[in-house]
Write a structure and sequence with these properties.
Order of helices and strands: HEHHHHHEEHHHHEH
Strand content: 5-15%
Structural class: alpha+beta
Shape: rod-shaped
Radius of gyration: 47 Å
Helix content: over 70%
């Protein structure tokens, strides 16, 4: 009876151990690992590092969120589907006898996603801002090609965010520049129309000419009045010289009055109103030109920022080609499984003894 119990106890250990051994040493397919290390830098950081002759290990400048975004995207369902479309299920699946690692095109999406994520190991060193990507497959070439594919897709993905934001900013600043340019052209056309309507190129210049002419007329009037006074000292008022001099003075006074009216704004089309109107248009044109210059500067800055926002995966270690299979670790896995089986058998025996005594 004791021999029979002992035999059953041994079988509870030997049978599971035998099954584990058959799987690990006979059925399980070899898996090869390809490893790469990289950091993420913007265009501005790459240019600065190049000009200062800095090593690419200065990864502290790469944003942590970019690295984590890459990790989440690599492990996402979209990336899984892209990988299966690129490589096919046969290249990513283990042998049919290794059902733990076997997957086909007809497998459920969740099964494919679980299988894909088991093939990827992504770690991030926060201190150095360097990410390590490990991919495993059932032949070394596929493991390396998968690693390279993930790196290229990840770089395209992080740049998509920068392009979307940059394109929106450039589009907005471009429209603002076009608006400012249209405003400059509109005000310039208004000035041209005002010049054509008033027959004036620059009212301020014209008013200066009028002021000079007025001063000359007033000087001539004073001189004419002086001459009239001299004539009246020895000639009668009805003499030809006195009458002619008075007529000359009257003409000068009319011209002076007309010039003063043009300058003071007593009638339509005068220089005062034209000067005010032209000054207003010139002020608007100056403001529009400043707005246009500011819009151009903003557009140039947006283009520079768009260029600097471009991200690059700076590869520190390129994906390698494995020389030997890294998984499964048969002996270590078997010893671990044997320990678990023995512990489970011992616990089962203890529970049975306790229940029997109870």
């Amino acid at each position: 009876m004791k021999f029979r119990k002992l035999k059953i106890q041994h079988l509870t250990i030997l049978i599971p151990a035998l099954l584990v051994a058959i799987y690990l040493f006979v059925l399980a397919g070899d898996r090869f690992v390809s490893e790469s290390r990289f950091t993420i830098k913007s265009q501005g950081e790459v240019s600065a590092a190049t000009s200062l002759d800095l090593g690419i290990l200065g990864g502290a400048s790469a944003a942590k969120q970019d690295q984590l975004l890459v990790r989440d995207y690599i492990l996402s369902r979209d990336m899984m589907e892209a990988v299966f479309d690129e490589f096919g299920a046969d290249a990513l699946s283990g042998p049919f006898v290794d059902q733990l690692w076997y997957v086909s095109e007809g497998s459920p999406v969740k099964a494919k996603l679980s299988h894909y994520r088991a093939m990827i190991d992504f770690t991030f060193d926060e201190e150095a801002a360097v990410s390590t990507l490990e991919t495993n497959a059932f032949d070394p070439e596929t493991a390396r090609d998968l690693n390279e594919f993930l790196i290229h897709k990840a770089e395209d993905y992080i740049n998509a965010f920068a392009r979307t934001s940059s394109d929106a900013m450039i589009s907005y600043t471009q429209k603002d520049l076009e608006r400012a340019q249209a405003q400059v052209l509109e005000i310039t056309d208004q000035i041209r129309q005002a010049q054509s309507a008033s027959q004036m190129v620059d009212p301020e210049t014209d008013i200066g000419v009028v002021a000079k002419t007025l001063a000359e007329l007033e000087a001539a009037l004073a001189s004419a009045k002086g001459e009239l006074g001299s004539l009246e000292t020895y000639l009668q008022d009805d003499t030809h010289q006195v009458v002619a001099q008075k007529r000359k003075i009257a003409n000068l006074e009319e011209q002076i009055e007309e010039m003063r009216n043009r300058m003071s704004g007593d009638k339509a089309g005068d220089l005062a109103d034209a000067t005010i109107h032209f000054n207003m248009l010139n002020s608007q044109l100056q403001f529009a030109n400043e707005d246009y210059a500011s819009a151009r500067k903003t557009l140039e800055m947006a283009k520079i920022q768009a260029m600097q926002a471009t991200k690059h995966l700076v590869i520190i270690d390129h994906p390698d080609l494995a020389d030997f299979a890294a998984y499964p670790r048969r002996l270590l896995s078997f010893l671990f499984a044997l320990t678990v089986i023995a512990a489970f058998a011992a616990m089962t025996r203890m529970v049975a003894v306790l229940l029997k005594d109870y």
